[in-house]
Amino acid sequence: MSETVSGFEVHDIRFPTSEQLDGSDAMNPDPDYSAAYVVLRTDTGAEGHGFCFTIGRGNEVVAAAIQALSPYVTGRAAPRTAEDLASLHHDLTHDSQLRWLGPEKGVMHMAAGAVVNAAWDLAAKRAGRPVWEFLSAMSPEELVSLVDFRYLSDALTPDEALAILYAAEPGRAERAALLRAEGYPAYHTSAGWLGYDDAKLVRLAKQAVSDGFTQIKLKVGVDLGDDVRRLGLARAAVGPAVRIAVDANQRWDVAEAVRWMAALAPFEPYWIEEPTSPDDVLGHAAVRAGQPVKVATGEHVANRVVFKQLLQAGAVDFVQIDAARVAGVNENIAILLLAAKYGVPVCPHAGGVGLCELVQHLAMFDFVAVSGSRDGRVIEYVDHLHEHFTDPAVVESGRYRAPGAPGFSARMRPESIAAHRYPDGPVWRARANGRAS
Amino acid sequence: MSETVSGFEVHDIRFPTSEQLDGSDAMNPDPDYSAAYVVLRTDTGAEGHGFCFTIGRGNEVVAAAIQALSPYVTGRAAPRTAEDLASLHHDLTHDSQLRWLGPEKGVMHMAAGAVVNAAWDLAAKRAGRPVWEFLSAMSPEELVSLVDFRYLSDALTPDEALAILYAAEPGRAERAALLRAEGYPAYHTSAGWLGYDDAKLVRLAKQAVSDGFTQIKLKVGVDLGDDVRRLGLARAAVGPAVRIAVDANQRWDVAEAVRWMAALAPFEPYWIEEPTSPDDVLGHAAVRAGQPVKVATGEHVANRVVFKQLLQAGAVDFVQIDAARVAGVNENIAILLLAAKYGVPVCPHAGGVGLCELVQHLAMFDFVAVSGSRDGRVIEYVDHLHEHFTDPAVVESGRYRAPGAPGFSARMRPESIAAHRYPDGPVWRARANGRAS
Question: Is the dihedral of CA B222, B227, B230, B231 positive or negative?
Fold first, then answer.
């Protein structure tokens, strides 16, 4: 039975989160969490959902980029196998004219990721499995076939990738059972937004610990005195045993990062995240060498080539994959394999709109079939906007529950899409009317 | 007298160059050279023109990104001074929500570059000077004020930049006079497109030499046997004294680049351009260390942070700026200063649509006020599509003539815009009708 992708819908969806200063940090003071959202529909009525996460303005540009990919998908046989998903990923990222717009970075690459992820959602649903299980059931050869090794071979060859996956094959079933029983450790960021006052920070930090989290995260980077005070308050609130990561959201140059983190080091932050530009491989290496706190980055790293170099240069202690910035599941498999090759733990970025929903699948797949380990690994959790998804991420006692529903947990509720469509949905029309009156 | 930007027009302009295989290379077999084009209009009737160069599909995405920048320009006082141009560049590249779409890379960053360049065109016209003279008349302090030093201070501080510019201040007038008398050396790429047969290659290579060029460039990277034959033919055609650069357009991994260039080295290629991914700083350093041919890159390098690392890592022998990929004149000043700091010559990328027109101004400014040297420096020249500009680049006897008309040489003829608008201009309507019949 042949099944064809017959529909390709793109939506510009935005949430007015800036009104609460949710998500505020040193570089992003007033985000409106948004999604450039795509729905693939087949002629038998199946659906695949995917999206890019943005923080407001420009979401329409990403939507236009997703639309530009429609000819590669519409009319195509609905992807079901690793081979189908490899060829779709290849076609979306190797079109020479669209590649010129990156290459493999920025708006066009994020758009390819949204469509690739929608195809994975579709294929996993057809297989009746959540994406993490769908991936974990593939052979090492199938998984390697999904990866674009272009520009990677000086760090990771297909044979080396196969060896990593074969080494993790024994115990796959046991680890999947562990995930179903215990879930995957999470850490909590909602306490630490820069726009929150001290009392709210302390209250939310204590709440996170009493909810079972063993790690929280604070935003830093605007004012060192404020950061010393806030980190001190947080440390006093949670005690010495809870990890406190800090996140500068690319605010610093190298010397400033070193100086700032030396001043925060007495509070024992667990890592410094995004100390400087995500493009600055050598800068991250210098920050890591210049002060005592471990270095993490990745949510804005454009592609596997930059991750490769962060690992080659010994620039990071943690690799933070993002489900929706690189070219989807396929490129994230490459990044997981690179991290495994270099022995660096992957601690995914999440938050935003739907990023928790997506990335939990990749971390769980990593545990089952790639690194084989949860040691030192933890998925970010932010408790925003989950109510808009039909299969929301569930975090209990500080752990992500393993998703059980078929697909990528990517489907936003139809009524949420309708309400938040920009600029014509009722949520935005009401605000436009409010401003006009 | 206040003057305001009251109009912001965006055009999607495409030329059907794929029909002739002009511009074909190892990664881009069938480009339709295109421009996402912006016109700023003031309430006194002045105009500023700018554009991104693309190779066809997706040009509408860049146009949408340019449109997203309209609110930062429309209604603003028309920029005239270094201070105005610094603040406009800052506003276009520091909007937190739009920055999320890069950061500082890909579609959104290229769009910022188009608008920044249009503002320079406008300001230079109001000053009655070509951009290279307009820049060369600014003080070291003004020039430094134009640069965003974020993420650069580990390689170049504002004080170091000032020192470079002060060192080049004596002799500015003499070097400007030299440019007006002698122009700036060019090299010629039109012989070497991969889609051309051997006879055309030999004929065009000989023609370039008889036209006065002392350097040509060949595309390589699809088939080593073909490259050995074509490079041999070209070397025989031009003799030992003419430089032949080769360009792989990102085709290789590191080991393949080393192997391939070792095989081509006996023909004494002058440089290998884009041997691998433009993101791969460490890869370029390995290619440079692994074989005898000098390494050049830059036309796809996303921003000043990656150029900084290419220089820090000793990864390149030549820096190839592109006028329309980074955030316009301002970011290119940063890159020129970085190259001067590290003593690496700048040999600009050109070709495409209008890139020769723009980048000649930057190379001439570099000679007058930054590096102070033309030694080892040469601007690419491709003889396509100049007829569509009202102030086209003029190359005679292998040298770019110094532009004399006010502005950035960026204005496309109105009739060319009308004819090539996509998809509704007559050039494209005729092709759509031809395919339909």
Answer: positive
